[in-house]
Specification:
With about 300 residues, the chain is of the alpha+beta class. Helix content is about 65%, strand content about 10%. Helix 1 (about 5-25) runs parallel beside helix 3, helix 2 runs antiparallel to helix 3 (about 65-90) and helix 6 packs across helix 7 (about 195-210).
Length: about 300
């Protein structure tokens, strides 16, 4: 990836060569005994580390404004450090404006640019982290989503039921679970096919959502069975809301692709939390639903 930034490297190389030429133009190479080799080792180490940082940065990042700022900041620091190294081997007259001016200017400017680049890099990483968390959340929700209706599935219901039970108990509010099951739904699949049954479930999903409060949660529990979480609703209010849902289903005229109008009824099981676990609350609602379906089933003559 570093080859994508060859122009940045070329610009730094040209600027470095220019400083060498300027130093040679105004000064003379020092004698061997005049050179402080300890300073040479220290300042060459700074140059080497800076160019390594630059190489690692360019090799791990795509093109962009943040990368350009990082390269500019590190490049200025490298050029300033390299000029400081040149001062150890080239004697520049005291009267020359170049003596110490390059490193004293480029080093602080490079540090300022590098600091600005790191700030934007930090913001960039925060955005990446937020986007990753959003994708992970979407993936988790997708895995807990019923693909036909777009509602949460049984696993999502279990998850939300645990959270709502804890929240409502902390707020000292009631919580009721309603299971709603279409009566004799299998006749649609037998008479018109499963594609027609799927279309009916999608339209019923929209109908049920329109008849719920904004705080309620609708899930597809299984097949033609839906689950509704009613936070803040006691048994009396939940019974009223359940009756409204049953009325909405019974008055809904589903139009098949053949143009036939089909009506349905629904049975419900209502269970209000009185210290239940999520599993026991679902079991109680299921038992009451099955009892209601038995009472609505046609009796043989």
């Amino acid at each position: 990836m570093i080859f994508l930034h060859k122009w940045k490297l070329l610009a730094i190389a040209l600027a470095t060569n220019l400083t060498i030429l300027l130093s040679l133009a105004v000064g003379d190479i020092k004698l061997w005994q005049e050179i402080d080799w300890l300073d040479i080792v220290g300042e060459s180490g700074v140059c080497l580390l800076t160019i390594l940082w630059l190489a690692f940065t360019l090799n791990s990042r795509p093109k962009g404004s943040v990368t350009t700022l990082l390269a500019l900041g590190l490049g200025l620091i490298f050029i300033g450090s390299f000029q400081d190294l040149m001062d150890e081997v080239i004697a520049i007259p005291e009267t020359s404006i170049w003596r110490g001016s390059i490193e004293s200017t480029l080093m602080p400017v490079g540090l300022i640019v590098l600091t600005l680049a790191l700030y934007h890099w930090h913001k960039e990483q925060l955005l990446f982290s937020q986007e990753r968390r959003r994708k992970e959340q979407n993936l988790r929700e997708y895995r807990l989503q019923d693909q036909l209706t777009g509602l949460g599935d049984a696993r999502f219901l279990q998850q939300q039921l645990e959270q709502q039970l804890e929240h409502c108990r902390q707020q000292q509010q009631p919580l009721t679970l309603v299971l709603l099951d279409l009566d004799q739904f299998d006749t649609i699949n037998r008479r018109f096919g499963h594609a027609e049954g799927d279309r009916l479930l999608k339209e019923l999903t929209e109908l049920l959502l329109l008849n719920l409060r904004r705080c309620d949660l609708l899930c597809r529990y299984a097949g033609d069975r839906f689950a509704v979480l009613l936070p803040g609703a006691g048994e009396q209010l939940a019974t009223q809301l359940s009756s409204q849902l049953q009325d909405a289903v019974s008055h809904f005229a589903y139009k098949t692709t053949q143009g036939e109008s089909v009506y349905h009824s629904a049975s419900v099981g209502v269970a209000t939390d009185t210290g239940h676990t999520p599993e026991s609350l679902i079991d109680l609602a299921t038992q009451r639903l099955l009892t209601a379906k038995d009472s609505r089933a046609p009796r043989a003559a």
